[in-house]
Design a protein that fits this description.
Number of strands: 19
Strand order of the largest sheet: 1-2-5-4-3-6-7
Distance between the termini: 126 Å
Shape: rod-shaped
Structural class: mainly beta
Number of helices: 0
Radius of gyration: 37 Å
Order of helices and strands: EEEEEEEEEEEEEEEEEEE
Helix content: under 10%
Length: about 260
Amino acid sequence: EISRITLEIVRSGKTPPPAAKAGDQLKVTLFGESGGEARFSIEGLVRAQNLLMREDPVNPGTYTGNYTVLDGDNVTNALVAVTLKDKVGNQNANKEQRVTIDTTPPPPPTELTVAGNVINRDNVNDVPVKGIATPNASVSLLLTDGIQRLEKTGQSDSTGAFRMSFNASSLKDGIVQIRAVEGTDLAGNPGIPAEINVLKDTQIGTTPDFAINSPFLPRPNADGSSVLYFITIFGTNGFNQTVTLIATHPLAPRKPHY
């Protein structure tokens, strides 16, 4: 006869969680008549069927069975069936325990974007980052230039959409990595991150100034039909470039046509 059954999810160094994940151990304990044969099965798991339980020699009538959760084991509120067969073959069954096993991590967020796909002077103090995650999930965002880190945690709405804004003025110009990840699920599986790179460019641009290099203006060709103009373009960050233009001189003599 079975008096009672207990079920425990064992995770090293952790308080027993509400659901099991890969690597956890399920410990099933049966209290009943001594000298029998006890077995347990987990509904929906082919490899967790009719598993033998061992009787404690120090505490007769106490049987313990263990199952280590593997990747791919996924059941929700599954019945744990325990049987005890006595010495003459009479068998009792009990199905009072249930368990949830989840070995699938939260998926990476999708459609991760920054408005305008760039961080510039117009939005650097209020950079909106948005994407799609599991509905009503905790979502963590990270912006980093490889040195500085900006982090926030928010929640997706009932459709899975999330949006958070950052003041990115402390990040250096260049490539900024944006990383989004859902929080751990009920079983403790960490989410899979999604990452994108965007350019941060907050430099003040100027319209290049154009100046004609007067010592070289004009320089007519030998036949007087055209003039070479040398133009230097001055811009930002030390940029300058000399461009040669060939133009027909307005006063150049024209050859007669017959």
